[in-house]
Amino acid sequence: MLSSCCRSALRLSASSQLAVQTLRASSCRHLDTAAGARGSYSSKGSRRAAAAAGLVIAAAAAAGAAGQASICEAPQKQDSDLPTIRRADVQQHKTKETGIWVIRGDGVYDITEFIASHPGGASKIMMAAGGNLEPFWRLYAQHEKQEAHDILAGLRIGTLPAEDVVVHKVSAADDPFGKDPERHPALIVNSAKPYNAEPPPDLLIDAGFTTPNEIHYKRNHLPVPEIDPETYRLQVEVEGKQCVRLSLEDLKMKFPHYRVAATIQCAGNRREEMMAVKPVRGLSWGLGAISTTEWTGVRLRDVLAYAGFDLNEDGPLQHVQFEGLDRDMTQAYGGSIPVHKAVDPHGDVLLAFEMNGEPLPRDHGFPVRVVVPGVVGARSVKWLGKIIASTGESQNHWQQKDYKGFSPSVDWDTVDFSTAPAIQELPVVSAICAPTAHALVSAHEDTIPVRGYAWSGGGRGIVRVDVTADGGATWHTAQLAPPEGQPLHRAWAWTLWEAEVPVPEGARGKEGAKLEIACKATDASYNTQPELAAPIWNLRGVLTNHWHRVPLVVSDEE
Amino acid sequence: MLSSCCRSALRLSASSQLAVQTLRASSCRHLDTAAGARGSYSSKGSRRAAAAAGLVIAAAAAAGAAGQASICEAPQKQDSDLPTIRRADVQQHKTKETGIWVIRGDGVYDITEFIASHPGGASKIMMAAGGNLEPFWRLYAQHEKQEAHDILAGLRIGTLPAEDVVVHKVSAADDPFGKDPERHPALIVNSAKPYNAEPPPDLLIDAGFTTPNEIHYKRNHLPVPEIDPETYRLQVEVEGKQCVRLSLEDLKMKFPHYRVAATIQCAGNRREEMMAVKPVRGLSWGLGAISTTEWTGVRLRDVLAYAGFDLNEDGPLQHVQFEGLDRDMTQAYGGSIPVHKAVDPHGDVLLAFEMNGEPLPRDHGFPVRVVVPGVVGARSVKWLGKIIASTGESQNHWQQKDYKGFSPSVDWDTVDFSTAPAIQELPVVSAICAPTAHALVSAHEDTIPVRGYAWSGGGRGIVRVDVTADGGATWHTAQLAPPEGQPLHRAWAWTLWEAEVPVPEGARGKEGAKLEIACKATDASYNTQPELAAPIWNLRGVLTNHWHRVPLVVSDEE
């Protein structure tokens, strides 16, 4: 799919991944905010424009392959008068004190002075400090403009030696995760093996309605399987009927194709906020375990009908099970959904083979995955190997012993997983993506521009998002960007929103004053989010959907 | 429908209605609880048995007509040695100090000493103090047993004069509400004209799964129309097609009948709790503006298809409007639902003509009403006159300018009703029906038996109810009685529940100690209730679904 040039770019990102991840692990979240806040709030006008643009750049950002190709084809400036600088040196230049250097191709650039005037805000450009720009430029299509190239050219201070330009992936034949694919260095890694990672909040929201595949959150339970699309076969079994085997070509040729924009969210999204109440067992997800994609595939109901399932039958086969091809020594991943969802002509359950117009990336289930819109991500089984229409639900570990909700008073000594239903539809949720935690609010501004996402399970669209900066004494109704063409009862994709929230009287203009902004969404059933995490705390840390709160600090700095 | 004997009984209730309503208005809520608590909690064993029975007596209580007939036919004891007592005298005997008297037929009974041993609890029997027993006995089928008759016979102290036995209804030819039907005196009247009333919480929960028609909450927007079932015609219009007119007989003969158990809830249920935060415009409903019925009727989708609507068409007709025959000088009641709900074969929308096996009572839409399961009561239009499948939604006042939710910061000066969607599906709710507010908890008991209901819109069944007696520090998972035969995605009827909640350490055995119990439910989408009313406050006081809290007092009395 990628040209050899682009493969080089991807290899490059493997090295910068190390650098940026190290940075992130130590202080990146802090840098995102404290350092980035001035850029974010000192110039309200441009910030507003950027926010507005953020809602419409999705298509450009999602173009993906085309964007990569043109980045790759742009010739790098060669300046033979400039010194050679080693990658290791660049990696030492990540702060204002040392100077902030970045790499593009074989060029090394000092962006220290440029940061304050970066149109996308200082926090964005700081993600690349000490490493490569390309992985980030691919996400922000506006860097394709000549203007960006010209600005960068003026900041060049050196050239990487050839051996630092291409960095080969470390081989790991003995590691079950050794054949996992490359990932984007911007992702915040919650677990490396199996790989679980999420985009930073501001990157997620800047990407707009459709999340680029590279930064779509990754939630793998097992190593990523290597599947040959030529020999791939999907087994479809309707209990009591003959079994059907379909090749990838069969799937694509025998059934009509559908495109569905759908948000997928991990049950553990925002778990870190629940962990702050009391420890839970689970990965410490921030608010980025949610992403939105234009999926292309065939309808599950069509495939079931082809395999002999009677769609009009309120019969004994009440579940549709999915088995993944990802497995370890003891088990494969799997799960099931109720048959009413599986066969609902308005339920839009897909067997997807494209993600934002590209073949599924390996991390997202290549060559075929299930996409169950409106339902917890855990049921959208990747690397789909088998479908079974059955009387009972899946007996898989992740259906029976995980992804269920319990009372805050149930602990690991008392839990009985059989007493709760497997999570299917998720509750209403929202989060503030920008500003990020501990960002600075300019003492010279009266309002704070706030942006975020809101979404609810079951296709229930978002009807309102309320934002407060004074603990709920006053609420500001956000401006919504609902998913186009998706009515309130079939809104599979999130609603992005923005609000201009007044700085509370007590904090306005007061250097060092602390404040907190919070949001809550209401969905088409007028369900809304609970205030606090403690009453919804549960031992697995799933279903975190209380108000999202972001602490901010007023700063006098220009 | 009723025998002439039963009509007399109903007339009787008109007089006792006055008496009991006066009582209720002054102190009945208090009596329900403070006086009733000892009966409720001093004998845990029998109380538990009663609670268990409460979950299964629905069928018997719902028998209704049969029960009335046998009450009416039972000969009253005539004891010529006893004195004549006037109704006005009886009405003066409602307290322990004066003695507590009640009437049945022409008999007057002193139940003062009996109250403490009343199997149903003291609060129940106190509702009839100073008035007639019959309206209450009709609700509790166990009074049909000879034992109840024998006990009462032993308490007789006098005989009503003939002129006090039958009280004629006051005629009111000039009153638009003058032809409204008789109502059950147990109902708490929030508005007399139009009539809006709810059952007391403990009566509601004691009635069990199916609420008897007489105490089903009544929510009328206009006078109750008088409709002749012989000349009644339902007009069905599919925009662009010919109009169809159906008689009641047509409806019953042309289409298959369906029975659906569905809970209907007013958008304003529990509004009084929201009013406690800040005034709203609306009736002060307690927690009883919700009831459950076995509805019988024909499917809306079948009638629409008969009128020429293409059920498989994702066409331009996206709404189904309903117009009621209830009207005043300026308008009729009406509303609409989205077409996807109207035609969904699993949506179970009925044109109902029977309520718990009886023809619809006049207050509930005789002869035909809509029942939209899982949706706010406002769309289940009563006295149905017209159905229109249309491109746009109903322009009726109650669809456009009412029954919508807004942010707590929107007031009557700033509200723009066009910015919010009409409420359709309701959010998850639960409430504690017993004990009632300010009830006494025995200082000699370690636990409190708690009972209530939980329900959610959209057919989302209840998966858990949590109850706390210590402000949420510990939660007790209630035992659920989900609606039989209704899966979690098609649970139109409520889930009744009960829990045995430990008295908190600090209050246990301490005379006068105050405590508060609270409940919250979780539905099949794992949506749960917000903690507080303030963040969901809205100017119309709809959608109150925060945790339900009940204050209690520990008492040393036996």
Can you describe this structure?
Two copies of one chain form a homodimer. With 558 residues, the first copy, chain A, is an alpha+beta fold. Chain A folds into three domains: 4-165, Roll (Flavocytochrome B2, Chain A, domain 1), CATH 3.10.120; 233-419, Alpha-Beta Complex (Sulfite Oxidase, Chain A, domain 2); 429-555, Immunoglobulin-like, CATH 2.60.40.650. Chain A is 22% helix and 26% strand. Chain A is built from 16 helices and 26 strands. Chain A has a five-stranded mixed β-sheet with strand order 9-8-17-12-13. In chain A, strands 10, 11, 14, 15 and 16 form a five-stranded antiparallel β-sheet that branches. In chain A, strands 19-26-25-21-22 form a five-stranded mixed β-sheet. Chain A is globular and about 70 Å long. The model of chain A is unreliable at 1-77 (pLDDT under 50). The interface between A and B is large, with 48 and 48 residues.
DSSP helix count of chain A? Answer: 16
Low-confidence parts of chain A: 1-77
Give the N-terminus to C-terminus distance of chain A in angstroms.
46 Å
Alpha carbon gyration radius of chain A: 24 Å
* Biggest sheet strand line-up of chain A: 9-8-17-12-13
Coarse structural class of chain A: alpha+beta
Question: For the record, what is the CATH homologous superfamily label of the largest domain in chain A?
Answer: Oxidoreductase, molybdopterin-binding domain
Tally of discrete structural domains of chain A = 3
Look at the structure and give the mean pLDDT of chain A: 85
Q: How much helix, percentage-wise, in residues of chain A? A: 10-25%
Which pair of chains has the greatest number of interface residues, and how are they split between the two chains? A-B, 48 and 48 residues
Report the major sheet of chain A.
5 strands, mixed
The CATH architecture term of the largest domain in chain A is Alpha-Beta Complex
Strand content of chain A: 25-35%
CATH class category label of the largest domain in chain A: Alpha Beta
